[in-house]
Amino acid sequence: MNKKFSSLFANDGKWRRFQPLYQAIDYFLYTPGTVTRGAPHVRDGMDLKRLMITVIVALIPAVVMAFYNTGLQANLALQSQDAAQASGWRGVLLTVLGAGIEPSSALSNLIHGGLYFLPLYFVTLIVGGCWEILFACVRKQAVNEGFLVTSLLFALTLPPDLPWWQAALGISFGVVIGKEIYGGVGMNILNPALVGRCFLFFSYPREMTGNSVWVAVDGYSRATPLAEWADPGLTLSASWSDAFLGFIPGSMGETSTLACLIGAVILIITQVASWRVMAGVALGMTILALLFNWAGSATNAMFQVTPLWHLVLGGFAFGAVFMATDPVSSAHTRAGQYVYGLLIGALTVLVRVINPGFAEGIMLAILFGNIFAPTIDRFFLDRHIERRRRRLTSDAER
């Protein structure tokens, strides 16, 4: 930026208190003016900024499905009610834009879904960003790009009709209690986006669970396929392929396993996320689901849910790819990442099958895994240190 303008934010400048905010805008819009010229100093092109941008790129398929499927489910519901247009300001905008409420129109679905997703996302982005800037100014530290990913992940896990003020409250709890009180980015032990969602889940269960929150039409009720599996009074209304592609009710960005798998490929190729964690989650889920399939139950239909169905139900794929692999709150040792993933996958199935009051499970399983990640790492680090000590002692005795 202009040197005269930047001097206002220097240590002796008039606006020095807002230096973190100036740095955040400067780093986001411009290339740093000081770069390393000598090749020996270059070890890796990946820094925190590129890491966060890569995660956002990997989330694009899930975001597109959040737009499309949210609009599709709303348009299908309106069509079943013989409605002429959507209600409220969204209906006016759809009419002005000429999009209508036709489920067979991809443009109508994308615009209608966007009118639900974008407001929630902007609320979480603005509120989460304000908390980040506030803590950065108080601590006199640079504003970190991490809140861009946290706010996007959080918005994708929400039902479409959630009140905006609850979204603001949830992201505030996630950023402040889940991250900032531990010291900010890199210091948190829990995934902040999941902490915020967990807070909303237990504080406002009526807006976060049940059959009436997943389709953005007032007075319309439809259960998710996972709830239909868990409730013996309901009939499964979706095919496996619909669940895999994401054309089912659910949290806006979690319904499409295909979109999550595309994101997983991007994260693995760029080495941003650990494939060991993803493999561990899938393996843990498969082993315990097969055990329940083998045991069977005459009263609990969840015992018969196969691993392929668990993969496409609820937020399993989204959690395994984007939440469990959080580079801060997950396990860091290679062997520990397998155990950490196995724990999350097994716990997810255990909660889904055993707990009749909570059909989901991946959220609590990941938070539980976050708590045990340091212990898992410590176990494998101690084993490694002890193995090297015995090797050195053996070499010295020869």
UniProtKB/TrEMBL annotation:
Composed of six subunits; NqrA, NqrB, NqrC, NqrD, NqrE and NqrF. The keyword Transmembrane applies. NQR complex catalyzes the reduction of ubiquinone-1 to ubiquinol by two successive reactions, coupled with the transport of Na(+) ions from the cytoplasm to the periplasm. NqrA to NqrE are probably involved in the second step, the conversion of ubisemiquinone to ubiquinol. GO terms for cellular component: plasma membrane. The modification FMN phosphoryl threonine is found at residue 224. Belongs to the NqrB/RnfD family. One of its GO terms (biological process) is transmembrane transport. It holds the Pfam family NQR2_RnfD_RnfE. This is Na(+)-translocating NADH-quinone reductase subunit B. Its cofactor is FMN. The lineage of its organism: Bacteria, Pseudomonadati, Pseudomonadota, Gammaproteobacteria, Methylococcales.
